[in-house]
């Protein structure tokens, strides 16, 4: 791991991380650093270890080898500080469909120790950011899939994390909604300085200029900008680069 000052500048620093489920390895010596305001695509097919990595960062799982720091804070030894700096949107939606958008966010604020007024104020700021302030009184059940995902992102940002983890956030969305969500996450990086780690198996969610971390069977096979990766491997497309890296046996979807 780097020196303390460098570590504090990094939103996420994972070093030499390994994890196994009942003796079956799921992550093998993974190291990855994400800077403030950076957008990194964690690209890997089903079973690559993406969700496992997120579970370790958020400490849903804990027995592992290696280090994880958020904004310079060790997730195990400085758990409170580290966790205050993480926002997460998991694969499975977790909004209460029978509550309004604002009620869902207010509940999240209360869990983070915010007063009711403070939670509502912060919720409104984030809902404006995702373009849903005018829907704040709407019951979540009445929103589209894309709108629900944006509400989850707004909720994940209420406590002003440095790092936003998004695990396959576009599952079940149509192409236009997927594109909107990808664009929205990029804007968050640029405008709010939030670091985003976006896990997906969909190559078409990688945009020009994105850094791509390719995870396969628990190992990080590449970590560089898409253009650098294709040039290094002497191929035209990221799809070809992916095939080359994983031996052409398993492909991420285009
Ligand atoms: N709770 C669990 N118990 C045992 N094995 C697990 C468990 N969760 C995941 N695994 C295994 O660990 C490996 C990594 O799974 P993981 O869910 O992290 O991959 P993923 O990249 O997120 O895949 P997906 O895109 O399908 O969500 C796989 O081989 C999977 O079968």
Provide a quick synopsis of the model:
By secondary structure, the chain is an alpha/beta fold. It is 36% helix and 26% strand. It starts with a helix and ends in a 9-residue tail after the last helix.
Features:
254 residues; alpha/beta; Rossmann fold; 2 domains; six-stranded mixed beta sheet; four-stranded antiparallel beta sheet; 10 strands; globular; binds adenosine-5'-triphosphate; ATP binding; nucleotide-binding; ABC_transporter-like_ATP-bd; ABC_transprt_ATP-bd_su_PQQ
Structure description:
With 254 residues, the chain is an alpha/beta fold. The chain folds into two domains: 4-85 and 161-245, Rossmann fold (3-Layer(aba) Sandwich); 96-159, no CATH class. 36% of the residues lie in helices and 26% in strands. The chain has nine helices and ten strands. Strands 6-7-8-3-9-10 form a six-stranded mixed beta sheet, sandwiched between helices. A four-stranded antiparallel beta sheet has the order 2-1-4-5. A hairpin with a 2-residue loop joins strand 4 and strand 5. Helix 4 (101-111) crosses helix 5, helix 5 (116-129) crosses helix 6 and helix 6 runs parallel beside helix 7. It is globular. The mean pLDDT is 90. The site of adenosine-5'-triphosphate has 11 residues, from helix 2.
Helix content: 25-40%
Placed side by side, the strands forming the largest sheet appear as: 6-7-8-3-9-10
- Beta-strand content: 25-35%
Mean pLDDT level: 90
Estimate the global geometry from the Cα principal axes: globular
Note poorly predicted spans: none
Radius of gyration: 18 Å
């Amino acid at each position: 791991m780097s020196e303390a000052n460098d570590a504090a500048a990094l939103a996420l620093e994972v070093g030499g991380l390994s994890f196994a489920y009942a003796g079956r390895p799921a992550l093998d010596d993974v190291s990855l650093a994400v800077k403030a305001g950076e957008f990194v695509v964690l690209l890997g097919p089903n079973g690559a270890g993406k969700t496992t990595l997120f579970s370790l960062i958020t400490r849903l799982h804990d027995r592992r080898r290696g280090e994880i720091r958020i904004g310079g804070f060790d997730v195990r030894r400085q758990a409170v500080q580290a966790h205050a700096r993480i926002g997460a949107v998991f694969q499975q939606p977790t909004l209460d469909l029978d509550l309004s958008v604002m009620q869902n966010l207010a509940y999240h604020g209360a869990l983070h120790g915010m007063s009711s007024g403070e939670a509502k104020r912060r919720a409104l700021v984030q809902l404006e950011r995702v373009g849903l302030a005018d829907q704040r009184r709407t019951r979540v059940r009445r929103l589209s899939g894309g709108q629900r995902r944006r509400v989850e992102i707004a909720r994940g940002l209420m406590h002003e994390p440095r790092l936003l983890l998004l695990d396959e956030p576009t599952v079940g969305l149509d192409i236009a909604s997927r594109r909107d969500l990808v664009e929205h996450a990029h804007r968050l990086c640029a405008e709010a300085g939030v670091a985003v780690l976006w896990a997906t198996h969909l190559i078409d969610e990688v945009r020009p200029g994105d850094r791509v971390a390719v995870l396969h069977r628990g190992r990080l096979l590449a970590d560089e900008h898409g253009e650098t990766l294709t040039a290094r491997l002497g191929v035209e497309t990221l799809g070809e680069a992916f095939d080359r890296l994983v031996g052409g046996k398993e492909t991420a979807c285009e």
